[in-house]
Write a structure and sequence with these properties.
The strands form 2 sheets. A 5-stranded antiparallel sheet has the order 1-8-3-6-9, covered by helices on one side. Strands 2-7-4-5 form a 4-stranded antiparallel sheet, with no helix packed on it. The relative contact order is 0.10. Strand 4 and strand 5 form a beta hairpin. It has 285 residues and is of the alpha+beta class. Helix 2 runs antiparallel to helix 3 and helix 4 packs across helix 6.
Length: 285
């Protein structure tokens, strides 16, 4: 009996981040920065000591936050800020300035925004993980861009997981995730005998709930989507290769060629051979 482990990952493109600057500083007493406006996101984690953040809210009101070790603060693009070290216990902090197409989304998931710029961790152990990743980036700034962006992703994940203001995914987003997870599973396994029960199990959902959810999102039951996927893959092979139809049938989840021909004709209005003769691209000059 075969044993295997399998995981499907959400189909997300996230590696579109850019790092602009990073560093750390042990500030002197009452050392301040600003007022200033940034063009990108700037996050500070306080390693030790204390300090103040003066931040302008979206409605134009000024707010003051007293901060200490283990906390952090976010400066958002276009926002006026000023921050200063405590007189008796000046802070030491590490910072990252970054941006990206989905940066706002991930920071919002951590519960951080112009309205709520303060990071407070769920535990100091988790906060130290955020700190350590930031210090690693600051101390390895000469490493490759891909290496550093990988650590930026780890930082964002640690920030989200550790933040006491973390926002749980909306129910709609969760449903979309399950449907995409199911589609990814079908894409990988359409060639073999695949049941709705197996797909639902891969998504960790009850079969009936999964079928209802899938139909709501895609407009057809999962078994119909799977048939269309298989036939679409078969049409691509017929259009672009000289593979015999019997081989195409088997490679697309139809070991019985007669069943394949019936399903194909029902979908495309003609037999596989007729469709191929009208649509093939291979062999043409």
């Amino acid at each position: 009996m075969d044993h295997f482990s399998f995981s499907v990952f959400p189909n997300e493109e996230i590696l579109n981040f850019k790092l602009f600057q990073t560093g750390w500083e042990q500030c002197s007493s009452l050392h301040s920065f600003g007022p200033s406006i940034r063009n990108h996101y700037l996050f500070h984690y306080i390693i030790s000591g204390r300090g103040l953040l003066d931040s302008t809210a979206p409605d134009g009101t000024n707010r003051r936050f007293e901060l200490e070790a283990g906390q952090g603060f976010l400066i958002t693009p276009g926002q006026i800020n000023m921050y200063s070290a405590d007189q008796l216990q000046p802070w030491k902090y590490v910072w990252l300035e970054f941006d990206g197409m989905r940066a706002t989304e991930y920071l919002n998931e951590a519960g951080l925004s112009t309205e709520q710029p303060i990071y407070r961790p769920r535990s100091m152990e988790q906060a130290e993980q955020v700190r350590d990743i930031m210090l690693y980036i600051a101390d390895h700034s000469r490493n490759s861009t891909l290496h550093l962006i990988g650590y930026l992703c780890l930082f964002l994940d640690a920030l989200i997981q550790s933040s006491s203001t973390r926002q749980e995914p909306h129910q709609t987003q969760l449903r979309d995730f399950y449907v995409q997870e199911a589609i990814s599973y079908m894409e990988l396994h359409y060639q073999r005998d695949l049941t709705v029960e197996e797909i639902a199990s891969a998504c960790r959902l009850n079969r009936s709930y999964f079928s209802k959810l899938f139909k709501e999102k895609k407009g057809c039951p999962p078994q119909v989507y799977l048939i269309r996927l298989r036939l679409s893959k078969a049409a691509d092979l017929m259009r672009n290769t000289a593979m015999p139809i019997s081989g195409i049938s088997a490679s697309c989840g139809y070991p019985n060629q007669l069943h394949f021909s019936r399903a194909f004709k029902q979908r495309y209005g003609m037999s596989p051979r007729e469709w191929r003769s009208q649509n093939k691209l291979y062999g043409k000059n």
